[in-house]
Amino acid sequence: MTHEANNISADEALMRLREGNARYLQAANAAGDVSPALRRATFEHGQHPYAIVLACSDSRVIPEAIFSAGIGELFVIRVAGNVVDNHQLGSIEYAEDHLGCNLVVVLGHTACGAVDAALHHEPYGTVKFITDEIADAIGDEQDEAAACLANVAHSVRRVEESRKVRADEAEHGLCVVGALYHTDTGEVEFLD
After folding, report:
1. Which residues carry a binding-site annotation for Zn(2+)?
2. If you compute the radius of gyration of the chain from its CA atoms, what whole number of angstroms results?
3. Which residues are known binding-site members?
4. Is the model's pTM score more than 0.85?
5. How far is CA 115 from the centre of its chain?
6. In the record, what terms sit under GO molecular function (predicted)?
């Protein structure tokens, strides 16, 4: 059922992300290939991303730029607070099963407005769905930096738990890792 894809290992995908972030730290402009030729090729032959990135919707967090990636290289899912529900899980499952991705990176970031809202503001409207999920993730934590890390760890666990129901997980070799983007420096810290 898996679509012909890059079919690279999770370790190789993680190495590409690390190298891309290193290039980003030195760049003045985005470095990914967005050329007309690549747009045409991905239109004609489909997408073949090497990694799935679940990131926050924050306008300062642009996974393709952060990892120096171009069109078709990353399967990006963005939602405020990088929280996980069935919509995000379904997107991950699609990218794994149909696009051959073996790596999921849950990318949180410093100075996250959604984490701040869960810590310091009264939730309202449908934003409450997000802040409640984050509040559950961070528990009694009051330090914003530690809360951001706890929120990433919670989303990583949610993705990992959803994958345990797959009988063929070992065959696919899906790896889920957490990471924190430092909005002040641009560095991505991959978490153990």
Report:
1. 56, 58, 109, 112
2. 17
3. 56, 58, 109, 112
4. yes
5. 16
6. carbonate dehydratase activity; zinc ion binding
